[in-house]
Amino acid sequence: MIQHILKVRLAQLGRYMAELGWIRSVLGAGLLVFLWLMLLKKAIFFVELSAILLGVSLASITYLHLYRPDKAFLNSFGQSTKWVFWAEYLLLSFPILLIASLTAYWWAAIIYVVIVGLLSLLKWTPRQLKTFTLPLRIIPAEAFEWKSGLRLGISHLVSIYLFVIILMPSPYFFPLLLLGGCLVCTNFYFECEPLIMLRATEVSSGKFLFHKIGMAFKLYLLLFSIPTVVYIAMHSEFWFLPLYGAFVGCFLLALAILMKYSLYQPGLRLGFNSMMIGFSVVSFVIPFLAPVPIFLLIRYARKASKNLNLYLYD
Predict the structure, then answer these.
(1) What pLDDT does 293 receive?
(2) Could you tell me the pLDDT band of residue 73, with boundaries at 50, 70 and 90?
(3) How far is CA 80 from the centre of its chain?
(4) Under 8 Å CB-to-CB from 283, ≥6 apart: which residues?
């Protein structure tokens, strides 16, 4: 059972790499290896980094397990499914576990493996909240992506809020959770609206993009304003961390919006954009890649303005 599922996952990975292109795949793999080596080097001198990485990894695995769409299907195969989940999660966590095992937090890696094993036994999936109506009325009509995204993904944001509350005593996790909330919000911009909604604005492409990005900034900052204030009150000496997290979050939202409208076609689904957002996140961690997101932002801003002109002035 486990071998069969893992073979299927490897086949899916192969198809994904073929679609992406082997040159890009090799470059991406090289960047991941470089990132791992950089984290290992830092973890040797800053031992607490291992605990932070394990915490972030465990939160990510928990989130993945709670909301993975194939969980009900795999659970239909019986008790052996738990071993499939456990094997997949350990493979995903292996780079982090290896870093922790090489530091003083090797014991935390053992506890991590046990917790992931217990998590694999959980069959529960959070239900979509159906009473989340009042906050949606506050959101302006032109921010329809947020209305739709929150209606479908509010349970994801609630989960992130719970992680924020649980991990608030630690000063290191909050910026990462702020980034996680941003990544959920960028999913709001992976589907193109009908042409009639685009033309209803009756403004130029530049004003349209400026207003769209500004609205996203306001809603994102408002969404996480309360936990940010609480964090700064609890950890005043680390006041700059949530500000940096908010800056990265706003940057990624702007990039997601510009990528959407640079490729805009009525009704088009832009799932590939999630990979570019993920690459931009990695670029903020690796110093020599820091200029890449700025280059992408400028490039997609020009393409978005040019592409919108085809639809707004047709």
Answers:
(1) 86
(2) low
(3) 30
(4) 289, 290, 292, 293
In angstroms, the CA 276 to CA 257 distance is 12
Angle in degrees, CA 84, 90, 92, rounded to 5? 105
**In terms of C-beta density within 10 A (0-12 exposed, 13-18 middle, 19 or more buried), how is residue 150 classed?**
buried
| Residues 187-246 pLDDT 10s | 889 888 888 888 887 788 888 999 999 999 999 998 888 888 888 888 888 888 888 888
* CA gap 195, 209 in Å, rounded: 15
The amino acid present at 115, given as its one-letter code, is I
Spatial neighbors of 70 by CB under 8 A, at least 6 apart, are none
User: Strand pairing partners for 191?
Assistant: 269
| Exposed/middle/buried for residue 271 (C-beta within 10 Å: 0-12, 13-18, 19+) | exposed
pLDDT digits (tens, 9 = 90+) for 263-295: 888 888 887 777 788 778 877 777 677 788 888
The maximal CA–CA distance of the chain, rounded, in angstroms, is 64
Count of H-run helices and E-run strands, the chain: 15, 0
Residue 191, phi then psi, degrees to nearest 5: -135, 130
CB atoms within 10 A of CB 92: 15
- Spell out the residues 6+ positions from residue 224 whose beta carbon is closer than 8 angstroms to its own: 178, 181, 246
